[in-house]
Amino acid sequence: MNSRSPTLEGFRTILRRPSFGLAEISWRWSFGAAAALLITFSFLEYLKTLPVSRLDLLLLKTRHPTLVGQAMAHIFHGSGPRVVRTCIILVLGLAAMWIAVAASARATIVNALCAYFRAESHSDQKKSWPLRSLLGLNFLRVAAALAATVGCVTALLLGGAASLPGNPAPGAAFLVVLAVLLVVWLAWSVVNWFLSLASVFAVVAGWDAFGSIAAAVNLCRDQTGSVFAAGTWFGLAHVVAFFIATSIVAFPLGFAAVLPPAVALGGVIVITLLYFAVADFLYMGRLAAYVAMVEFPPVLVALESSPPRIPNGSRGPTTAPDSEGSVDQNELILSDIPL
Predict the structure, then answer these.
(1) What is the pTM of this model?
(2) What is the secondary structure of 83-128 as a DSSP string?
(3) 243 CB-contact burial (10 Å; exposed 0-12 / middle 13-18 / buried 19+)
(4) Distance CA 102, CA 133 (A)
(5) Is 236 exposed, middle or buried (0-12, 13-18, 19+ CB in 10 A)?
(6) 16 contact partners, CB below 8 Å, separation of at least 6
(7) pLDDT tens sequence across 69-87
(8) Contact of 243 with 221, CB cutoff 8 Å
(9) 3-state class of 156 per DSSP?
(10) For the chain, which residues make up each domain, given as ranges?
């Protein structure tokens, strides 16, 4: 077996088997569509609970900014607790739904990737469905996202504290908010990346959540070059796709004054969806590269690609002597039977 590049295996997988990328798109976009419908339905139901009097309607019809502001303030007065309860229910429901759907999808896709690589190497192994480990990892990812959200709110509060009404300092407030947001984003990115990588070991090796995290850390330590190369090349491909999408989306926006608004908006939506599809394909390629690192570790590849070595001071296997030079076991002088 020749030495394989995990990064090339990832790109080769999404090119030869686009079904993996389509599977990633299907579950991600299905969840996104369901979440969008649920949020829209909740928002419409919330609007139905707002009391609108005849005076409010009269003020809204005037279209005067001051009168419209008074009407809106009266309509939304006292609805803050209802908004908080709605947001809490939505966040908890969507988080629970994402944990279950993402665990099932990740187990299915990683098992398919393992079967694909094992078919190429002519090896076989039973599928594993460690849903408990994946549920635990996804719960940790949700907790990390909530912690990052709290960190963003804290950044805004610290920025407000840095610029007091009596001593305004907008520059210092901006720097404080930017620095805290950068730290929070970096911390969340690292934690989320490790938890995402740990899902590979949860499926391939069947380990629990914390064992999978430890295995992900060991992989980064033992195969630092391969992990860095996969992240770098797929990250660069993602950046290139982003710049291409932003360049193409400028065409319908440039003709927005000439084209109908629906056509310009439709072009922007189509280009955005294509960019998201390419991003999901690249994510699947990077995941395939990580699975290749686990399925084809460099130590095993080196052992299989080189002939076995005989340790110094030991004798290697000898060939059986021919009939002429064979030793007669019935000879008493060479036998182990005492005379």
Answers:
(1) 0.77
(2) HHHHHHHHHHHHHHHHHHHHHHHHHHHHHHHHHHHHHHTT------
(3) exposed
(4) 12
(5) exposed
(6) none
(7) 888 888 887 777 888 888 8
(8) no
(9) helix
(10) 6-301
